[in-house]
Structures are given as structure tokens and as C-alpha cells.
Amino acid sequence: MRRAFSVSFLRSNPLLLSHSSGNSAVVALDNHYYYNSSSSCCCCAFTSTFHVYAISHFSTNPNPFKPNSTFPYSSDPTHARLKQLLLEKSKTGFDKLDDALVVFDKMLHRKPLPSVYQFAQLLAALVKMKQYSVAVSLFRDMCVKSISLNIVTFSIAINCFCHLNRVDYAFSLLAGTIKRGFHPDVVTYTTLIRGLISQDNPAEAQLLFTNLIRFKLIQPNVVTYTTVIDGLCKRGHISTAVMLFRYMEKKGCKPNTVTYSTLIDCLCKLRLVDQALGLLHEMTKKGITPNVITYNSLIQGLCDFNRWQDVNQLLSEMNNRNISPNVRTFNILVDAYGKEGMINDAEDVIEFMIQRGQHPDVVTYSALMDGYCLRGEVDKALAVLETTMKRRGIVPDTHSYTILINGYCKKLKVDRAVDLFQQLLREGLSPTIYTYNTILQGYFLTGRHVEARKYFKEKMMLNKALTLNNITCSILLHGLCQNRFVVEALSFFDTMLSAGLIPNICIYNTLIDGLSKNGHLEKARSLFDNLPLKGLRPNVKTYTMMIQAYCHDGLLNDANELFLKMEANGCLPNDVTYNTLIRGFFHNKKYNEAGVLMDEMCARGFSADASTASALLDLLKSQEQNPALLALRKKFLT
Questions:
Q1: Helix segments in 58-146, DSSP class H
Q2: Under a CB-based contact definition with an 8 Å cutoff, are residues 44 and 186 in contact?
């Protein structure tokens, strides 16, 4: 009799796996788990499952290759030599896959067979080579030939399935492991947790970890804790990650460099750099040495805030600890200096890294090119690609070309950008959606809307390999509305919705702005009013656009009402919002109301912008004796 269990139920109840009894076994069929009450050997059930997967990825036979005479161990090695070879290769991997297969074939024909530990070392060598499918196939052969297995060989196979993104097979094999009388250890379960995280299932990984603790199936080690912390960090749950970090310390499990580095990296990505620096101080105080990965995360975080003095301090600290910056470190600095327009500093960093024996790569020079483009020096960026990179034997990638294409589009040299796009294709590179979006926007920026629309329809819509995103939609909608093709913009918007693309608030902002500026205020209002039904909240830009539209059409009451409502809805007005409504009051001769709002604006730390000041001066010229205007001049222009 078979009883089906869902994957999530099995994973959330690991206790079931630890109490298998009788002849029952859990087998994987069609991505479900079943109890198989037959008395057949559990391993046979699993080998049939593995065979379906393995045969589609790698075909293996008991003797797949004849011995290769160039392989130093192709002749029948002594037991001692075989033992030494496997010990060495389990740590480094074989130079060639054929060599590993030859050794496996020799092992199968030895009398007596080598020990299970030696077979496990061979599988470990394949894992080192990232030959996961091959390892699974050889494991299957071991099962078929009834070669003795142990928890290590099972754990290696589980690890391979996780690397192949088949965690379902990994869990199936876990059940088989237990059925054969083995007890999965902390390494096995940590492998499964890591597999779930790698398949973007951190919630299930966390649930498995929680149940393992609850049912006392394992005593988590530092690797287990760090793996779960990494999963939490990937989901942005830094508070929970820190709580688990403190819990592991409380339980006597000492965090290591990787644990601290994982948390530090997450904090930096969340722009909590001071907290990350606090963890650095804590780990060094406890005698845990940071590594270059730790420092790279912190340097990136500090560069994001332009905290150059702190960056220099960290670099000095690295030097004092004899931790050498790597290419990643230098690339972070080149990118940061380039983004700030400090191109000379970026070039100095590249020169310094060469002196230190580090080799700049395509990322280094792409960052330098981006820095030139941000300064408007696109031709210099092109020289980096065509001269410097070529001289150093570095092949540009799609990102390198896209940087240049974007630079030329912003300089309104779209034809040159299109030439580079064609060059990219000739080099055998595949443009990304960002590359296509850049050229589409370039056409609209130069007023070539006919070519833009043609390019979109022929090069993007008909390209089945291309997935349009919200940025594509925003560019197209903005370009169409700017050129008064509002009906076409609405039609495309409906097509986008029908295709299943979910617009974000930026898309709605673009369309609301385009509609209101082209005399379609009611349609803009309808989109705005329906935002909550779409699960979206208007942001300050959305509110400001609608306020501006109301002011433009003389609907001051609606504009003022929306201004009051936005704050009640938790969206604070900014300086643009205030200045927009104040000019609306000016335009409609509501000078006293404008004065009250200007007082409020100044109290919040904002000031009148150039347009507002200019509007007030123009009014004073035409209405010199108006008391309300004179009061405003006295307050804000003296």
C-alpha cells in the first residue's frame, strides 16, 4: 500500500525519518514521497530513481573507458599506491575526468574490492572537480554492484544532488540512508540545509533546522549555524540572523571567521555599516581573525557612504594584519572612485594593484570605463576597451559594451551606440535586457521616437529569448507619453498587464504623469485611486504628480485635500511637493494660503526653490501693492 506525503510535510517532520521501521522505505517518484511497504531492497528502489536522472546527464558503464596509457596509474597499482593516490585526489581532484573513471574501473576489478572509504575518496575527488552528475552515476553503479556503502558515501551523493538542484532526490536518498541503518550526521543535514538555501528555499531550510533542534536529531556545529545564518541574511532577515548568532554563542558553539563575515556582509548591504564595524571589533577582540572577504564587505559598505578616511584605516589595518588585498578589493576601490568622478584615483589604484602583482580583470576596466562615462568622457572609455584591455589580453564582456552604449546614448550619440551593439553581437556576446533598454531610451532621448518604436517592436517584442522588465515598460511609457502617444501608451500598458507583468509604483508614476500632462487628468486620477487595489502604495512622487496635475487644472481644493491626505497616509511631503503646491496657490491668487504653506515648509527645513522664488518676483512686479505679496517678500526675499 502506498501513502503519499507532500515534500513540505516530510521536510517539516524529520522525526519521521529517524524512526523508520520494518520494511518500509520512502522513495521518490514524480516529486512526491511514498511509503513503499514491499520487502525489496531499499537501495534498489533508489538506484532506479537515480538512473532516470543520471542517464540524462552522464552515461556510464562498468568499463566506460579503456585505460589511458598517459595516466601514471593506468597500470594496476599496488594497494599502497592506490591508497596514496585517492588520498591526494580527494583533496585536489583529478586533472582529467577520464583519469578518475579509469581508477574507478580498476577499483571495480580489484580482488578483494577496495574499502568503502577509498570509494568515498574517489567520489570526493569528483566533487572537487564539480563533476556532480558523474559522482551520482558512479554511486548508482556502487549500489547496483552491491558495493558496501557508509554514511560518508551517502552524504556525498546527497551533496551532489543538492549541487544539481535536485534537493527532492537528496531528501529521498536521506530516507534510504536511514532505512539501511545509518544515522545521518550533522554534515548530512547541513548539506540539505545548504541545498534548500541554494534553491531559494531559505524558509524551508530554517524550518528543517528548527525541527532538527526541536527533536534533538543533531548537535549543530559552526558550519550548520553559519549555513542557516547565511540563509536568513539572503532573505534580509538580519535581526533573526543576529539572534541565532547570539543563540549559538550561548549554546557554546564558537562562531568563526565565516560566521562573522556573513553577518558583516549582510549588514553592509543593508547600509548598517557602523554595526558591521562593531562586529569587526568584536571578532578581533575575541581573537577571531578577519580575512580579505570580511574587509571587502566593509570597504564596499564604507565606499557606498564615501567614508574614505575609514576606508584608508581599514586598508592600513589589513596591512598590519598581513592580509593582502585581492582583485575584488581593488575593483571595489576603482568602482567607488569612478562613481565619484575621482578618475585619477581610480587609475592610481589600478597602477598600484599591478605593482602589487595583482592582475586587473574585465571587472576592473569596466569600472574604470564607467567612471569615464559618468564624467562624459566616453571616448576615453572607448580607448580603455579598444587599447588598454586589448594590450593586456583582457576580453570585454557584455557589461563592458553596455557601459559604453549607455555612455554614448547619454551623449545623444545613438548611432555610435548602435554600432557598438552590433560589434557586441559580432564578438559572440549576448546583450542583456539592460543593453536593449539603454538603446531604446537613447532613441527617445534624442527625439527619434519612430525609430524607438520600431526598435522595440522588431528587436525586443519579437525576441523570444528576451524577457521585458519593468524598466523596459517605464522607458517605453515615458517615451510614448512624452511624444503625446498616450493612446498607444495605454494600449501597451494593457498588453503588459495581459502578459502577466506586474507593474511597480514607478510604472504607475510614469503613466500618471504622462496622462496628466497630456490632458487626461481623469484617467490619471482613476489609476491613482485604484493603486490600493493593486497592492501598491503611492509614494511622495506619486502624490506630487497628482498635486501638480490638480494645480495645473485649477483644482486647488483637490490639490490641498490630497496634500493633507498624503501625510495622514504616512507619506511625508518633500521640498518638491511644498514648492509645487505653493506655486499652485500663486497661480490661483491664493497668496495667504501660499504664505501659510511657506511657513510650514521652512519649519520642516525646506526652502523655496528657484521656480518658486522666480514666480514670487514676477507677481511682485505685476502687483506691487498687494499686501499679502509684500508680506511674502519681507519674509522670504529679504
A1: 79-92, 97-108, 116-128, 132-144
A2: no
Q: Identify which of 394, 384, 319, 390 has the alpha carbon closest to the alpha carbon of residue 352.
A: 319
Q: Which pLDDT does position 12 carry in this prediction?
A: 40
Q: What DSSP state is assigned to residue 288?
A: P
What is the rounded CA–CA span in Å between residue 508 and residue 524? 9
Beta-carbon contacts of 460 under 8 Å, excluding residues fewer than 6 positions away, are 436, 440, 466, 468, 472
Rounded distance between C-alpha atoms, residue 456 and residue 492, angstroms: 12
Q: Hey, CA dihedral for 111, 113, 115, 121, is it positive or negative?
A: positive
Which pLDDT does position 465 carry in this prediction?
A: 86
Do 493 and 470 meet the contact criterion of CB atoms below 8 Å apart?
no
Structural contact between residues 28 and 171, judged by C-beta atoms closer than 8 angstroms:
yes
Report the distance separating Cα 446 and Cα 79, nearest Å: 75
Nearest to 120 by CA among 138, 95, 99, 97: 138
Cβ-based neighbour number of residue 90 at 10 Å: 19
pLDDT of residue 532: 93
Report the alpha-carbon distance of residue 142 to residue 149 in Å, rounded.
Answer: 8
Amino acid at site 435:
T
**Which amino acid, one-letter code, is at 473?**
C
Question: Quick one: which of 236, 170, 168 has its CA closest to 202?
Answer: 236
Name residues of the chain where pLDDT drops below 70: 1-77, 624, 636-638
pLDDT at 36: 35
Roughly what angle, to the nearest 10 degrees, separates helices 151-163 and 132-144? 140
Question: In the block, which residue shows the cell 518658486?
Answer: 612
Cα dihedral value 274, 278, 279, 281, nearest 10: 130
CA dist., res. 208 & res. 214, Å (int): 10
Preceding amide of 290 cis, omega within 30: no
Q: Which residue has the cell 601514471?
A: 72
Instruction: Please give the Cα distance from 637 to 627 (Å, whole number).
Output: 15
Nearest-angstrom CA–CA distance, 398 and 428: 10
Residue 355 CB neighbour total at 10 angstroms: 8
Residue pair 156/184 in contact by the 8 Å Cβ criterion: no
Which of 180, 169, 209 minimizes the C-alpha distance to 193?
Answer: 209
Distance of CA 268 to the CA centre of its chain: 15
**Which DSSP letter does residue 533 get?**
G
Task: Read off the amino acid at residue 65.
Answer: F
Closest to 176 in 3D by CA, of 151, 194, 195: 151
Q: What is the pLDDT of residue 637?
A: 65
What is the DSSP track for 411-454? TT-HHHHHHHHHHHHHTT----HHHHHHHHHHHHHTT-HHHHHH
Contact criterion met (CB below 8 Å) for 310 and 342: no
Gap between the Cα atoms of 354 and 102, Å rounded: 43
State the pairing for strand pair 32-36/4-5. antiparallel
Total residues found in the chain within this entry: 638
pLDDT on residue 198: 87
Per DSSP, the three-state class of 146 is: coil
631: CB partners within 8 A, 6+ apart: 595
Which residue in this structure is represented by grid cell 586533472? Answer: 95
Q: Which residue has the cell 499652485?
A: 584
